Amino acid sequence: EQLSNMIAAGEVVERPSGIIKELVENSIDAKATQISISAEQGGILSLSVVDNGTGMDAQDALLAFERHATSKIKESNDLWNIHTMGFRGEALPSIASVSHVRLRTNDGKEGTEVEIKYGKLDHASPIGTPRGTSIEVKNLFQKTPARFKHLKTPQYEFSLISDVVQKFALSHPEIAFTLHHDGKLTFRSSGSGSLREVIMQIYGREVAKSAISLQGKDQDYTIAGYAVQPQYNRATKYYMLLFINGRMVRSYRLQKAVADAYAPYLPKDRYPITVVNVSMDAQLVDVNVHPSKWEIRLSKEKQLERLLFDTVKQALETQIS
Ligand code: ADP
Ligand code: MG
Questions:
Q1: What is the ipTM of this complex?
Q2: Which terminus of the chain faces fewer neighbouring Cβ atoms within 10 Å, N or C?
Q3: DSSP states of 247-285 as a string?
Q4: How many angstroms separate the alpha carbon of residue 320 from the centre of ligand 1?
């Protein structure tokens, strides 16, 4: 049991940014409208995620650390119809197996604190704490030196955290995010719901002003988002963001469809800045491909490639002429 937690931890939690990704996904699943993330020394010393979501009662707070104790899947059938970010029920036990975790949560009825040290329950007790959930992670990988060795400098680790948080802000403009590093505020989004405003906070006013709104639809897929005008191109693909049903994903083919639509306007080997949200029936997408959930499988991928290409091409054509 403990061993399988540690093996899973290798896949899900390789570094602070991966832990933050899992914790923030849980906060989003818990319907939080405010999520505050803090890290000390790139998250190596400590990190925390605080939300104002539904919280948990005392029993669920303990259960959350049991492997495969996800509250999000009721039957195995649900694995093919996933609407929440999490579903494997392995993030919290994995994280707790390689660190000290302190969870404080309040479901509106009772407040609970649970502390786990390297997979062992330290204590669980009633506590006064605001509605929602806060999770603090310390002493990461102190008992797994091989893994600790793979951590890079605090600055590098923080750059990955910052990236993850900004991507969450882009995929959820309706949630107010803050990010602190070593006590300093480094990023905030207002939660107003405006994607263009988040683009401005991340890429600056000029880029945001030039962003062309994307709208596309066929019987299976709906596309929304922004395509930034070609003069703001970048040297890496890294700025082509793709979210499927609110989940950030990587897809070579879908990103290529976007890049192909830009191709007439961009020098070779330059890439656009785009934020693309695709919504579809959850039955059409399999996110259960890899524990990190970055990769997906679509049952009608060619059709989506086509729609993406057409939507971006049309937006660029009408704007640039
Ligand atoms: P999963 O997200 O795959 O269900 P996790 O290990 O990430 O598994 O979380 C386990 C369970 O703990 C979740 O199913 C949820 O019930 C509960 N949980 C975790 N984080 C939060 C949170 N921030 N707010 C409310 N419930 C939470
Ligand atoms: Mg989760």
A1: 0.98
A2: C
A3: EE---HHHHHHHHHHHGGGS-TT-B--EEEEEEE-GGGE
A4: 46
Output the CA 88–ligand 1 centroid distance in Å. Answer: 10
Instruction: Give the number of whichever ligand sits closest to the CA of residue 30.
Output: 1
The whole-angstrom separation of Cα 253 and Cα 303 is: 12
Q: In what order do the strands lie in the sheet with 274-280?
A: 212-217, 221-227, 274-280, 240-244, 247-248
| Cα–Cα distance, 67 to 89 (Å, whole number) | 6
Ligand 1 site, CB within 6 A:
22, 26-27, 30, 51, 53-56, 60, 64, 70-72, 86-92, 133
Angle at CA of residue 219, ends 218 and 221, nearest 5°: 60
Residue from 67, 84, 92 whose mutation best tests the ligand 1 pocket (most atoms within 8 A of CB): 92
**Structural domains of the chain, ranges and CATH numbers in brackets:** 2-188 (3.30.565.10), 204-319 (3.30.230.10)
Phi, psi of 35 (to 5 degrees): -135, 120
pLDDT 10s digits, 138-174:
999 999 998 999 999 999 999 999 999 999 999 999 9
The structure tokens listed for 95 are 């994280």
pTM, two decimals, is: 0.89
Tell me the two tokens of residue 129: 């704490």
Cβ atoms of 230 and 317 closer than 8 Å? no
Q: Which ligand has its closest atom nearest to the C-alpha of 82?
A: 1
